[in-house]
Write a structure and sequence with these properties.
Length: about 120
């Protein structure tokens, strides 16, 4: 990933995390597409990007300062980096980590999205 692409991804990440443009669902789509774009990266870097995407969306979902409809949109799309992480898992430890992410999502989304 080039430096300018990385900067663009980081800016998008902040906008997604903070729900800066809650009426622009295309922002979330662009962020998720860019975080998955470069499949020529080593597996470890691809995994890191997917974990970051998952964590960014999860943080947005759990933040009551973010507009509710943006949090709901993030919840609707958080499965994408988790599925990619599952596909990138190379061993049992990595598969178990993905399962822990699913469990964390289940607990936190129930708590933060049911109120």
């Amino acid at each position: 990933m080039f430096c300018s692409e990385r900067m663009g991804l980081e800016l998008l990440e902040v906008s997604v995390r903070e729900g800066r443009q809650p009426d622009s669902p295309q922002l979330l789509e662009t962020y998720l597409r860019l975080s998955h774009l470069d499949t020529s990266l080593p597996i470890a870097q691809q995994q890191m990007l997917q974990r970051r995407s998952f964590e960014t969306l999860l943080e947005a979902i759990c933040d009551h300062c973010v507009p509710a409809h943006w949090r709901s949109l993030c919840l609707d799309h958080i499965h994408r980096p988790l599925i990619r992480l599952g596909n990138l898992a190379r061993n049992n430890a990595e598969r178990q980590q993905v399962q822990r992410h699913y469990a964390e999502l289940a607990v936190l989304s129930h708590y933060f999205c049911s109120r």
